[in-house]
Amino acid sequence: MEDQTMDFSIKSADSKNSLATIKTDCIVVGVYEDRKLTSQATELDNQGIISNALENGDIDGKPGSSLLLREPSTATSRRVLLVGLGKKPEISEKDFRQAIDAAIKALSQTTVAHLLIALPLNNVSGRDVSWSIYSVLSAFHALLYRSDALKSEKGPSPKIQKAAFYIPSAEVTNAKKALAQAKAITDGMSLTQDLGNLPANICTPSYLAKQARSLAKKYKFDIEVLDKKQIEALKMGSFLSVAKGSDEPPKFIVLKHMNGKSKEAPVVLVGKGITFDSGGISLKPGAAMDEMKYDMCGAASVLGTFRAIGELNLKQNIIGIIPACENMPSGRANKPGDIVTSMSGQTIEILNTDAEGRLILCDALTYAEKFHPETVIDIATLTGSCIVALGHYNSGLFTRLDEAHDTLANDLIAAAKGSNDPVWRMPIEEAYQEQLKSNFADMANIGGQPAGCVTAACFLERFTKKYTWAHLDIAGTAWKSGTAKGATGRPVPLLCTWLINREKR
Ligand code: BES
Ligand code: MN
Ligand code: ZN
User: Of 71, 210, 237, 425, which has the highest C-beta tally within 10 A?
Assistant: First the structure.
């Protein structure tokens, strides 16, 4: 179930390709407030068609405003769509995104199939052309992504098929690279969304393994899928304790893209792959329990990011690890009070079987040690508490508080800002570790209600002492509920952007 793909390209703004002579269904150009034109608008204005529209007040140039001019006398294009960019000269990120959304909204009410985007992509304050191109692609992605693969009747397919960016010739090389990156990110998001949206009776641990295998085949990743016996041999007692409550066999998926220098320590991405979280014996209430099919969105974000890694063939060593199983109640399921021994040797008292994410991740984090990683990032729909703390806007970013981790956190925050996939840094401190005390084992798997997302991160921290590590709690950001129910594809933009930025240093 592929997304409806749109074809994007870069058109060089040179003498052969003047705005007036380009053949297309529609050219999108910007106008500012106070009747000021962008350079592209000036180019198309020779008989005053655009300045007149501003003079007459048909468009005021405010962000979000748009005006469609049909059969313009000054261009070969059948239409010109004016969009407001706010005050000259610098466009804010928010205004630019609003302008793009307005353009897409106006276009979707037309029959425009081919589009030329002639906006001042390098005038967004603090951002470059590459950011602007990404923002346009992600807006189109939001419009075009469909989740009706399992419906008998599909929604109407959008008319828009092709869009070209009109780019000054000196910037064409850069823009092409930026376009490839943006395309890889939105395609990665599509995969993450498709997997997230699939129901748990289809998207099982075996299904995730199958998807990983097909990615590996397509992009020549190394892959290992460990089955229950092999997981037992590794002594992942904590992961296995969750898996044993279900009839679906667990899978432990390891993907490797080793395209960096042979001695370069890898980045490891670990994704929580609970394909359904019923809570286990500590059963969840029925309302909205269907949404626990999304409890594998961390795993799906690792696979989506690997799709982008493969598309871009990044020159880095990157390993993806996915512990995948169901969390179900049964005669073989974990019981509150059970004590298990993790792969690290540390013992865990399972006071609540619904705190299962940390139980599968801790063994994956220990397994990651064998790669002597430079950095490990785990991605997990880990706690309802993170939603209480940060809502559905920011993902929670947790790291230790030393210098190396400050650097990692700041790099992740920068990547998050640059990809409109925000995170907020949260603490990991000794004081919270107290809450995980158990009378009978090395630790309990829950720390009580206060700061639940922090104690969950503190639990994971105990398994990450050997490397630099960050934890992303995406419980509030991986999917939307209600009538807009659906996976968001987050934090694929953040992860991809962070990896791409890493290559620049
Ligand atoms: N997968 C859930 C977290 C979750 C809940 C994400 C709701 C998104 C929406 C996780 O396994 C879980 O159940 N966590 C418990 C932990 C608690 C028992 C300490 C929670 O957050 O309630
Ligand atoms: Mn749970
Ligand atoms: Zn869960």
Answer: 237
457 φ/ψ angles, rounded to the nearest 5 degrees: -65, -40
In 292-444, beta strands by DSSP E? 317-327, 338-341, 347-350, 375-380, 395-398, 423-426, 443-444
Instruction: Please tell me the predicted confidence (pLDDT) of residue 16.
Output: 85
> In angstroms, rounded to a whole number, what is the distance separating the alpha carbons of residues 430 and 400?
10
Residue 157 has pLDDT above 60, yes or no: yes
Residue among 480, 306, 497 nearest 416 (CA): 497
- The angle at the Cα of 186, spanning 453 to 128, to the nearest 5 degrees, equals 95
Q: Could you count the other beta carbons within 10 Å of the beta carbon of residue 400?
A: 20
Q: Which of 282, 383, 446 to mutate to test the pocket of ligand 1 (most atoms within 8 A of CB)?
A: 383
Task: Quote the CA–CA distance of 456 and 81 in Å, as a whole number.
Answer: 50
Per-residue pLDDT reduced to its tens digit, 183-220: 999 999 999 999 999 999 999 999 999 999 999 999 99
Q: How do 423-426 and 395-398 pair as beta strands?
A: parallel
User: Looking at 382-467, which runs of residues are DSSP E strands?
Assistant: 395-398, 423-426, 443-444
* Token duo for residue 337: 């009070």
Catalytic residue list contains 210: no
Structure tokens at 46: 């020779």
Is the pLDDT at 89 greater than 90? The verdict is no
Q: Which long-range contacts (CB under 8 A, 24 or more apart) does 404-409 make?
A: 404/468, 405/468, 405/469, 405/470, 408/375, 408/468, 408/470, 409/470
Looking at residue 152, its amino acid is S
Residue entry with tokens 């979280």: 277
The answer to whether the CB of 475 is under 6 A from ligand 1 is yes
Distance 357 CA to ligand 2 centre (A): 6
Among candidate residues 35, 235, 284, 417, the one labeled active-site is 284
Taking the C-alpha atoms of residue 243 and residue 324, their distance in angstroms, rounded to an integer, is: 8
Q: Is 336 in the pocket of ligand 1 (CB under 6 A)?
A: no
Nearest of 267, 205, 151, 199 to residue 487 by alpha carbon: 199
